[in-house]
Specification:
3-stranded antiparallel beta sheet, 9% strand, 9 helices, minor pseudopilin epsh fold, mainly alpha
Length: 248
């Protein structure tokens, strides 16, 4: 594989951002995420996407009550916080240079990164799961996993251990790294810490306590193990194909 130059790297990242691949969304999800028409002079708004299945679809591995609260309360809060941050930053900019409103830029930039990352990863997370999922992946994603990790068993152990050992709250993430053309596993703290710019999330696992505490209490390991029974490998495979096409 040839090493891309700076112009090619910047072009790739720009394409990913424009097409939704930067945050790991499929074309359909990017369209669904299209912001509402803004009011004159106002910022665009993000919307909470619906769950792609009933809340009880992933039983007994992930319970309906957790899914309902997770999506309708926690994910909705990230969307609300993201829209608020966008609006506050717009207001601060309108104050102009020297405005006291600019003193709040740091606060709302932090909020933008936190809530925006939460919204993005949850959008991928819901689609990464399905009723009757799990098993070993086939197709391109299966071949890529075998090539980059040696075997599915190696990959599974790597990902599970990473997710279980995230300090505090965060995510286990399998991402496509375009500069080297390989899959990598990341353990992100909160949403925005210990991530890697340029990577495209393909498979994500929420290990914040709100994602599992009602059913698994403090047994994060049991929740991570159960996740392997609901993975939608078709969705992961389609994300890989989109990421590889955009970064070719």
């Amino acid at each position: 594989m040839s090493i891309p130059n700076r112009r090619e790297i910047l072009g790739t990242l720009g394409t990913l951002a424009a097409a939704g691949g930067w945050i790991g969304l499929t074309a359909e999800e990017s369209a669904a995420q299209a912001p509402a028409t803004p009011t004159p002079g106002g910022p665009k708004e993000y919307k909470l996407p619906p769950l792609p299945y009933p809340p009880d679809a992933l039983e007994p591995h992930i319970d309906a009550q957790t899914m309902t609260l997770h999506h309708g309360k926690h994910h909705a809060a990230y969307v609300k916080g993201l829209n608020e941050a966008i609006a506050k930053l717009e207001a601060a900019r309108q104050g102009g240079a020297g405005s006291s409103g600019l003193d709040s830029i740091r606060e709302w930039t932090d909020s933008l990164a936190f809530n925006g990352s939460g919204h993005t990863l949850h959008t991928v997370f819901w689609e990464n799961m399905k009723k009757g999922g799990g098993g070993e992946p086939k197709g391109a994603i299966g071949k890529q996993i075998a090539g980059d990790f040696g075997s599915f068993a190696n990959f599974q152990a790597h990902f599970s251990t990473t997710a279980k050992k995230v300090q505090g709250s965060g995510w286990g993430i399998v991402a496509w790294e375009p500069l080297s053309g390989r899959l990598i596993v990341l353990g992100a703290e909160k949403h925005q810490n210990l991530t890697m710019f340029g990577c495209v999330p393909l498979l994500v696992l929420d290990v914040w306590e709100h994602a599992y505490y009602l059913k698994y209490q403090n047994n994060r390991g049991g929740y991570v193990d159960a996740f392997w029974n609901v993975i939608n490998w078709d969705n992961v495979d389609s994300r890989l194909a989109a990421a590889m096409k955009l970064t070719a």
